[in-house]
Amino acid sequence: MTQYCEVCPDIEESICHVLLHYPRAVQIWSSSSAPLPSRWESVKDLLLFLRDSSRRPSTTELGVVVAYLAYHIWLDRDNCLFERRGSLPRLVMDRAVPQAMEVSLLAPSTSFGLARDIWGTYAAVVAPKYASLSWVLPPPGYLKVNFDGGMAMDSASGRVGFVIRDHDGRLIAAGGRSTPGLTAVGAELRAAWEGILYVRHGLGVDKLCIERDSATVTDWI
After folding, report:
1. What is residue 19's DSSP assignment?
2. Predicted confidence band at 131 (pLDDT cuts at 50, 70, 90)?
3. Percent helix, percent strand, percent coil in the chain, to nearest 5
């Protein structure tokens, strides 16, 4: 069954709409101080821009900013949908750009690991040191699990993932996997379970805390 945008009547809430044409997304893109190109009409246009920008040193930094803006636009839409709250467009941009700048500064000196599918395994990618500017450190001796999950429009499939950091902000591991049909909340819970399971069995650590922007899921756990 087609899901329509609750703000834009008769418009399907597709990935393209959420990232590029949703009114809040348009406001966030417009609030950026980065010299963005003319507005993209499709996700394919956006992905082609990111691909091309990564191939030229002169545009790599701009590509990273665009990628982080898109990511934070998605998170903001998630908050609006599940928590019925969102940030001012300028605040979304202010969170995204510093993180993008930090990644750009680290990029020449390090190679970032990629999260990979961990279906049925306890394998995850060991990552280099990186601390988000807006991320809160866990207590000394603890690991923090950040997790996220989402479903496709038809609810037939989805993806879940997690990121694990220590009390110094060092990125320890990241992993992800596909899921069968679940609800949106079910996908979030599965993502949390995968992260906790990896910390306990993969790393052998009992002291952990979890963090997610969905208060409902965190409270249930």
Report:
1. I
2. very low
3. 45, 15, 40
Rg for the chain (alpha carbons), in Å? 18
Torsion sign over Cα 112, 79, 147, 178 = negative
Q: Is 46 within the bounds of a domain?
A: yes
Q: CA-to-CA distance for 60 and 50, rounded, in angstroms?
A: 8
Tens-digit pLDDT profile for residues 77-105: 877 777 777 778 888 888 888 877 776 66
Query: Structure pTM?
Result: 0.50
Structurally, the chain folds into a number of domains equal to 2
Q: Where are the beta strands (DSSP E) in 51-99?
A: none
Domain that holds residue 160: 125-220
Higher pLDDT, 83 or 57: 57
Cβ atoms of 174 and 192 within 8 Å: the answer is: no
Alpha-carbon gap, residue 94 to 88, rounded angstroms: 10
Residue for token pair 């190679």 = 111
| Residue 117 pLDDT | 41
Domain's final residue, options 109, 143, 168: 109
Distance of CA 45 to the CA centre of its chain: 20
Assess if residue 114 is contained within a domain. Answer: no
> Which of 180, 132, 177 has the alpha carbon at shortest distance from 152?
180
